[in-house]
Write a structure and sequence with these properties.
Blueprint lengths: L10 E3 L3 E6 L2 E6 L9 H16 L5 E6 L3 E3 L4 H6 L8 H20 L4 E5 L2 E3 L1 H8 L2 E5 L3 E3 L10 H8 L4 H10 L3 E2 H7 L4 E3 L4 H13 L3 H15 L3 H15 L3 H12 L9
Parallel strand pairs: 3-4, 4-6, 5-7, 6-8, 7-9, 8-11
Antiparallel strand pairs: 1-2, 2-3, 9-10
């Protein structure tokens, strides 16, 4: 797991990512052009950023973005190829790389704050996995997606985990077996992204979603996100029992009292986060 370090999330840049915090929304921009590849260093940097955001009460929503024609091209193939010269042919490096990347994707899912992917370019392999791991994804009409491991003599097995949990099995297999690029509209039809908008409206629409979520009770959002993923792997009866218990606890909180009173009084709620 990436080392946890303190980061100033108000407005900072590590050289690989830039962060900007405005009104509870932390925008994390991949800044390693042109491919914004998930190198070992990029994975560690993103993991540290997530860890810092987890403990920062000022952060309510994360937006994951990048600039240029590529959102994220997946792993750094040059970095991978360089380790072919290792005594073991690069096996230890690959094992560590994919383990760390998997931990990053799990960290996004387990983060008690929603993560929105803002995609205005190509997302391939682990970059597509990154989009699929986010809670929401807003794409411009210029966005493209694919899992091209099969074209390289391998298979996008770890991207498959996130992909198969977001789209139907037939659609996931179509992407994994063909390695072909799909456009943004097809990605929406498959269920990989929530909305497709003209490029000039991407920031506006993403900001609208982020602001709407940031206005809710952070405690309720955290509880709900955790429950969503927990119940997804349960049998129906078990899921309902679990979700009912979570719902009871949710409506016993101070934020629930505040939300109900604000609704009845026709005023804006003031969340306490508890």
């Amino acid at each position: 797991m990436a080392e946890i370090v303190a980061l100033d999330l108000e407005e900072s840049s590590t050289g690989l990512v830039a962060t900007d915090l405005q009104d509870g929304v932390l925008t994390v921009t991949l800044s390693n052009p042109p491919a914004h590849a998930l190198s070992m260093e990029m994975i560690a940097t993103l993991h540290r950023t997530l860890d810092a955001a987890r403990s920062d009460k000022a952060v309510r929503v994360l937006v994951l973005a990048s600039s240029g024609k590529i959102f994220c091209a997946g792993h750094d193939l040059k970095e991978m190829a360089a380790h072919r010269a290792d005594p073991d042919g690069g096996r230890a490096f690959l094992e560590d790389l994919f383990r760390r990347c998997s931990e990053l994707m799990k960290a996004i899912v387990r983060l008690p704050k929603p993560v929105i992917a803002r995609v205005d370019g190509i997302a391939t392999a682990a970059g597509c996995q990154l989009v699929a791991s986010c809670d929401l994804a807003i794409a411009s009409e210029a966005a493209r997606f694919c899992t091209p491991g099969v074209n390289l003599g391998g298979f996008c097995s770890t991207p498959m985990v996130a992909l198969s949990r977001n789209v139907s099995r037939k659609h996931a297999m179509e992407m994994l077996l063909t390695g072909e690029m799909i456009d943004a509209q097809t990605a929406r039809d498959f269920g990989l992204v929530n909305r497709v908008v003209p490029p000039e409206y991407l920031d506006q629409v993403t900001a609208k979603y982020a602001a709407a979520i940031a206005s809710k009770s952070p405690a309720a959002i955290a509880r709900g996100k955790r429950a969503f993923h927990e119940q997804a792997d349960m049998r129906l009866s078990e899921a309902y029992d679990y979700a009912s218990a979570v719902m009871v606890e949710g409506f016993m909180t101070r934020d629930s009292d505040e939300g109900i009173d604000a609704f009845v009084s026709k005023r804006k709620p003031e969340w306490k986060g508890e």
